[in-house]
Amino acid sequence: MAGLTRLATRPLLLVAILGSGLGLSACGTTSAVSQARTACGYVGHALREYRQSQQVSTPSAVRAALASRAVATLLEATPYAAAATSADGGWNPLMTTINEAERVPLRYLVASLTSLCAIANSPNPYL
Fold first, then answer.
1. pTM, whole model, 2 decimals?
2. Distant-in-sequence, close-in-space partners of 39: CB < 8 Å, separation ≥ 6
3. CB contact set of 97 (below 8 Å; sequence gap of 6+)
4. Between the CA of residue 90 and those of 24, 65, 81, what are the distances in Å?
5. Fewest beta carbons within 10 Å, which of 9, 40, 86, 101?
6. Three-point CA angle 29, 31, 35, nearest 5°
7. For the segment 37-71, what is each residue's pLDDT rounded down to a tens digit?
């Protein structure tokens, strides 16, 4: 009888372990999405500043200041994008694209950042 009891509890233990693992992985994914969305808040603000800097009616000194501030604002998103990537490696493209702002003109990153943040802010935010 004792042998039967031990055999019956093993599947229950296995189910409990698998359920815990799935639950913990869901927490990481939820955390990653939250961090990605926070990063995208900065991205959105940076892209608005960038678009303002591209208005030809804006004085050139103001345009330069806005463009510089846009990059600085974008780089403020880095810790949030890094946290998202740490929780779920699928967010690495967001972090990498944000970090490219230090080396690549922002005009080349706008489309990627817009797409990545559209995914992050969607009802099914998975890359």
1. 0.75
2. 77, 78, 80, 81, 84, 94, 95, 98, 120
3. 109, 112, 113, 116
4. 17, 33, 11
5. 9
6. 115
7. 999 999 999 999 999 999 999 999 999 999 999 99
Tokens matching residue 100: 């490219």
2/5 Cα distance (integer angstroms): 5
- Find tokens 């200041």 and name the residue: 65
**The pair of three-digit structure tokens given for residue 13, joined into one six-digit string:** 């233990």
The rounded distance, in Å, linking the Cα atoms of 116 and 97 is 9
CB 93 within 8 A of CB 36: no
